[in-house]
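Consider the following input, taken from an annotated entry for DUF2510 domain-containing protein (Microlunatus endophyticus).
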Amino acid sequence: MASSGWYPDPGGAPGRFRYWDGTRWSAETTDNPNSAPPSAGPGPYASGRPRRNRTGLTVGILALALVIIVAGVLVIRGLADRGQALTDPNPPAPTVSGWNDSSPLPTATPPPSPSPSPKHSPSPKKSATPKKSPSPQGQVACATGNPGQRAPHPNDGRVHGGDLSFTPVFPEDTGYAQQMTWAWDVDGTEEETEPGWAAMMADGALHADDGFRTSEQSAEGMMQCIASSAYYDGFTGRKNVFSKAVTVDGHQGWALRVQIFVDKPAGLSVPGDTAEVIVVDTGKPGQLSFFAGFVPIGDQHRTQLLDQTIAGLQVD
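Applying the prediction step yields:
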């Protein structure tokens, strides 16, 4: 998860940056990541509002026309991207450090890199220094979902998303899980582990119309979306811990655990996160359900919490 600063717009607008204040995204965007923090109130996925100026009604009309044109382009782009994020229903399982070039997700043109490094966290034991890619990794072209579109769920103290639920072990409800913009019906909890870094667990749904076809292929595709997003803006490589078939509450699924490495910002004590994604086929047509957990590499206590939470996953 990222520290406060300007990051590539999670809505996917090319060349635009949105400000993350450590809790929420700003309403404003900019094309200059070195700009001062915005003064307007934050809001997830909110579009930048045109500012009033001294040129009167004429400029106001021009600004409104520009907003309409940009909105039209974004809608067309979203429709064009939907369903194209994952193209290979059975990609080879990755086994090496660094980016998996045989991935089912195409790599988009890398946006300009902002200065701050991200904040997020998952966990096993510390491993060897990751291999850095010969060039910076771009954000993969992930589907456009709606993580805030919630289905009805029981109010029983568990964290519900998709057809899965788990007992929360972190104290804070998180809006940060809503940055899984390729998913649907997402909820989660988080805990700050040190300044600029946090652990998080979340669950939600993946739609077949967005290209998520099988549990194995979707676990790999979702992990690539996570590693290349603003969660890990300083991504340098990854190392697979395991990729295997699992059973969750009697339903077949796939579990993928990796170590994600980042360029360490000043003062950060860990090299990155241990992340696990579990995708389960609960039998609902056109939909898979997922759990995602992130803890700092080497944090044995939170790694145990991650393992305990996974052991207690339930299908609703």
